[in-house]
């Protein structure tokens, strides 16, 4: 529990629970499911019979290093916007943990690492070629039937659409001072860029 290393006492850099986001594999699903549970309870109050929407997850990169990859990410993003569905875009250039996540997912299916990658309802749809093909045949529309709708003009207030926010624990500097120990340690709340996923728009 006490990630900063000190025992009890005053902890100046403790995060508000709502701003805490752990990137450790063991904590990540707990945080996500807790959020989902709260979200669902809210939904259930309004619409008791509404089925749970299928998550649309798109792994991308915002790095322009490989022109083809960058163009493919933009193309798939544009196709999905046309369907007006909510997309949980995961930019791997913002967070090494997201890169490892999609690498593991592809490796488990015996596929080479490539971006973008689309998942609908936990099922791997594939990369840009697959998405384009499914779109042309009309199958993509069917796959997206159960997805939550979202206005393509929606921009998250909390992160401005970046889907990451500077870590509140360390201010994005990745270092926190532990008063009890009188030393500076690496912040355990954020990723290698001093960022945490925006809880307002990411599940
Ligand atoms: Zn956001
Ligand atoms: Zn931090």
From TrEMBL:
Name of the protein this chain belongs to: Glutaredoxin domain-containing protein
Gene3D superfamilies: Glutaredoxin
Region (Disordered): 23-50
Pfam families linked: Glutaredoxin, GRXCR1-2_C
Segments traversing the membrane: none
InterPro entries, A to Z: Glutaredoxin, Thioredoxin-like_sf
Location of the Glutaredoxin domain: 56-125
Superkingdom of the organism of origin: Eukaryota
UniProt gene name: At5g39865_8
